[in-house]
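cache lookup: miss for this entity combination. No prior model stored, computing from scratch. Input as submitted by user K.M.:
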Amino acid sequence: MAAVQDGPMELDTEKETKPEILSDGTSKLSGNTASGTLSSSPLTAGGAPKQEDQQTLIAVLQFLRRNKLSESVEILRREAGLEDQEDSQTLDGSGGGKGDRDGGEANSLLSRVSITSAAAPQSTLTPITVKRANEQLDVSVVLSAYSQQGDPSLYQVYYSGLKNFIESVLDCHRAELSQLFYPLFVHMYLELVYNNHENEAKAFFEKFGGDQECYYQDDLRVLCGLTKKEHLKGNEVLLDFRTSRFVLRISRDSYQLLKRHLQERHNNQIWNIIQEHLYIDIFDGMPRSKSQIDSMSGSFAGEARREVNKVKVFHGLLKEPEIEVPLDDEEDEAENEEGKPKKKKTKKDSMGSKSKKQDPNAPQQNRIPLPELKDSDKLDKIMYMKESTKRIRLGPENLPSICFYSFLNAYQGLTAVDFTDDSSLLAGGFADSTVRIWSVTPKKLRKVKSAGELNLIDKESDDVLERIMDEKTASESKILCGHSGPVYSVSFSPDRNYLLSSSEDGTVRLWSLQTFTCLVGYKGHNYPVWDTHFSPFGYYFVSGGHDRVARLWATDHYQPLRIFAGHLADVTCTRFHPNSNYVATGSTDRTIRLWDVLNGNCVRIFTGHKGPVHSLAFSPNGKFLASGSTDGRVLLWDIGHGLMIGELKGHTDTIYALKFSRDGEILASGSMDNTVRLWDSTKAFDDVETDDFTAATGHIHLPDNSQELLLGTYHSKSTPVTHLHFTRRNLLLAAGGYSSQ
Amino acid sequence: MAEERRQKLCSVILPTESMKAMAESVGVGSLQEDSCLALSEEVSYRIKEIAQDALKFMHHGKRRKLTTGDIDHALKLKNVEPLYGFQSQEFIPFRFASGGGRELHFYEEKEVDLSDIINTPLPRVPLDVSLKAHWLSIDGVQPAIPENPPPVPKEQQKTDSTEPLKAVKPGQEEEGSIQTKGQGASSAEVKGKEKMRMKPRSTHELSVEQQLYYKEITEACVGSCEAKRAVCVCVCSQGPKFKEFCLALFIRCNIMNSKYTTKHLLFPLHELIPAVVTCIVSKQLCLRPDVDNHWALRDFAARLMAQSCKTFSTTTNNIQSRITKTFTKALLDDKTQWTTRYGCIAGLAELGHDVIKTLIIPRLSVEGARIKAVMDGPVVSNIDKIGADHVQSLLLKHCASVVAKTRPLPDMVDQYKVDYGYLGTMLCSHVVKARAQAAFQAQTVNRTTLTITQPRPTLSVSQSGLSTSSGSRAPSIIKVPSSLTLMSTRPGTPTQPSPPATKYIVMATSAGAASTQQVITLSSSQSGSPVTSTVPSTPTSLQPLVKLESGNTGAVSGSRPLQKYIVVSLPSSSSSLENKSSSVLPSSTSPISMESAVKLERSESPAANTQSH
């Protein structure tokens, strides 16, 4: 088992920052900011022994020189030791500094995590990061691939020639080969644009733009605005399209057919594009049907390569910590509250005994360091178990009741909602940069007294926890001010002591729910942070934003522990796996990625959405993932096999909220179309027949059974559903801002 | 289609004139055409780019509308300074100007006098965000509460209420399938026709005490003593024991006027409505349907229904369209009895002109053919004939006024025949009369200050055994100031088929004093005792009831010049339209009795003042 490292993560950070700077610099819009960022952050990069890294360094140096940042050049030169310095030296520099800082802010939480931080250098870098860094070495280099070209007037001929060919082949191959249309179209168009054949490009677009699949509409819209070479430079979307090879999955037979055709016709232009810009994943076996292809395509860069999803994912749950549950909970409730459960006779709770058996798919308990349970956490666990015995067993015959919390007078400003796990608190993020917290129980929200007053309290008294609260501040809701832009997500910590909020201003803030003040502002995303989510065990959290990366943080580190880079567009939503070892991110590039928290690797890429993914939910057993997007569909994924296993159609607008019931039997989805829908997830998961073949190839026949799986549709009165939450007893809570029209 | 749109998208660039205008605004005088073109392309591209980014902010803000704030944030992403001044969320006040062959949209920034701002009172502070919880679903069922949207979407409700026939069809199928399964009894109340057929008539065994109690209450209710009635209402609403027959009692009795329904709301709607609907559409309401005047009860119940619809129908319970659906469905059924048919038409007609227009008039020809079959065909049974006759007159009565309003002139009999079939001829004459009446009324309106519509709540049903037995009570009923009694000169016998009861509304106006409105029913089936109901009211409370309608007003001057009586004959259940519109004093029996009645009243009124409301 590898240990958690701080040093290498620093490297990741730098790597990630560089490409951004590069692209910004060349787009001539933000040269100043870029250099500011660069000089302000201590350079700790370099040191990785790989050849690519040296290239990266050189590229950075070139960039700095060009921008006349001679001081930075010097520093970088010195720190990196240039060319042939050994990595040990650099690590001394960077690792040492890191150590000091760690020492300075060392506390109990940190020690849990970075016990091994002084260990030997670890050179496992996230491969994707490295690749990105390379690919974006220089925009002109990237684009120069387009310079070689044929006669621009013949492009239409080439394309229509291929089109005629594909339309004439056998049906079984046609569907597969049709996948070529879109990437070829884009690349040919970009080539035309790059080589300043504006009119030809426009004509080409007009002629063939309408042939493309409807789910590429959004990209085509971007594309059609782009008619000049200069436009290409600043456009990240197109740059990504160019740098990441579009992945197609085609059966061997179809591929041979295509190859033969292109060779016969000497259609080199298209063949070059296929060779250079496309990645064709050839498989043996039956060609896929149109519906099979359609269900998987739609992502920004084609389907996921098969080998990407082969890594083993430990999707099982961690063993529940053994907490002795008092037997006579009814009678001795009062005493339990006092925190002396151990004196009582104990019984093995059913949940506890189940978790005795180690789930074969579960990660090792200490695969990533998790915070130790505090006494208050244990009490909470006990409460949780008690509640779960009273839980309603849901099913198709037994639908949950839904309680809807409408935010009135929010003037369309409600952007995010979260409930605490015990459903006692509700937080709302608003477009006016505030975060508000409500108590939805009769218990009011109280601040801790000021330091001076706290001094006067008798610390030995039994009710000291009660005494430290300031009764004068009791109110039903509190406002947290601090952000300087709309708040896009809020997330409670599992212990209800903290709240996270992410905002347009590029920060994630950690708030204390004891004092109702801001504790930390985590700066790292320089662009809007779309989502943030606390780990189910607390301490860690993940955030994702417009800078196209997701970051893993620990509450006591002001810099991220991991950077998950790989998405080709904004990271719109982030969720922790129930065992906290993985993080799922959804993106505007219409893919979902699963990342390993331990080493930062991307272990799953799910494609199939036709619009930006805006909501994610893990099933409570950790085996499945549900995702909702702007196209109004919910997709279900088997994490272990890396397969799509279901498609739930019914919503007519963006799905912003997804949640499994506590037992995982019902999936609730909430959408902009003002409805909450309930789906039979048990049936959805059972219906899938996964034989070895489908598991091996990933070609799945999706049963079109959305209507059978839909258990209920509940309309609200012009209130979009922003958040859904199942209480511990399986009551469904929904929340949204009422918009009067 | 998509191609077209994209083509448009592709070619949309800002006009070069805009570039020139913008250049001028920053002091660049002459801009070459080429530079303009290059600039406009560049600017268009950047604007598109920004718009695309702004969309992201809209999505994450969970909105459907792009705001100026989103654009600002998108500009910030690009490191461009946001636009200052566009803070409007909704409305962006661009102004248009043209001149010198150029057109321009611009944002007008007015000079603002600071002192004005300082001196204006502060605007109201917007309401703070608040949280409200409600049940969206309870065990999988969405409760019908105001917080939830109506069970049927508004568009659906609209089509339901205008074209219930469409909505009925699937319902019928569904019902059929349910019935084959033998679960018909559990089907909703709305599909009440079938259900009623199945439901056995329940008999209540009453003890002697209960019978006495019942009798007392009935008398109190039927009587005109307001105080007694109020007590009665109170008692009944508290004691659930007699709920069922009290309900029936209240409907039969004249008591259910608007005042009581709104004030006391004796019974929950779901208990009230089935009973009322029963009174409207039941096949048989009394023991001798050929003789007894159950039509009046149907009329009254229909009016009550319409009134409840107006009062209680909301988008959540959707009473009106459900009722409409029920009626229409029964009306569509070929096997529906004449009695039920009559009830359905009455029920629909009472719901207003629009309902008549959309639902009844299109069916006129069909109904006409049916009536013709009964009238001209072989004599089947007396009951059918009476039924058909009633339906015919009802149809004519309600449709004529609507047709008169909607149909353009001229009224050609042939055309009417083509349009409405068998009933066309009669309808035509009715319409002509209605028009004439309206024209006449237009003149009289100028003169008379008081006009009367059909007062919805006032109607009396005369065939109940109770009132027959209390014939001697007739004079004592009249205890209200300046009330009138109209005595029928021709006592009828119960065994004879009763001619339709004729009603008169007598308005007394006494120089600005409180006016009294009163309805008197003359029924020859009674042993000479008309049941009189009075609605004493002050002008204010009377106001909503008094509306000008295409009714017929005439004036009969009383003996004293101070008081003026306007006697209006109401189209009662069965009075034909000819009666209604032909003359000032319509009924053949009335001219003599009217005068005598007026006199009678004169003498009695002073004594009756005590009980005034």
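stored under new cache key. Chain B is about 50% helix and 10% strand.
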